[in-house]
Specification:
- This protein is mainly α.
- About 60% of the residues lie in helices and about 0% in strands.
- It contains four helices and no strands.
- The longest helix is centred in the middle third of the chain and has 14 residues, at about 30-45.
């Protein structure tokens, strides 16, 4: 069984495709992931934005791999 890999989405992208990629990885609706992200922004005093930007740099883009 091949191991699943996390990629930034090329189809479910709003900014960099990180949240869409996470949704595809867990097979969840991207809207749910985006909503949780927006809630986490307010709860964690914008630390989630920093994590998102770091993830956008670290997680490879789906289009670059295939």
């Amino acid at each position: 069984m091949p191991m699943k890999r996390l990629y930034r989405s090329s189809t479910n992208r709003m900014v960099a495709g990180v949240l869409g990629g996470i949704a595809e990885y867990f097979r969840v609706d991207p809207t749910v992931i985006r909503l949780l992200f927006v809630i986490s922004i307010f709860v964690s005093l914008f630390q989630s934005v920093a994590v998102y930007l770091i993830a956008a740099v670290i997680i490879p883009d789906e289009r670059e791999v295939h």
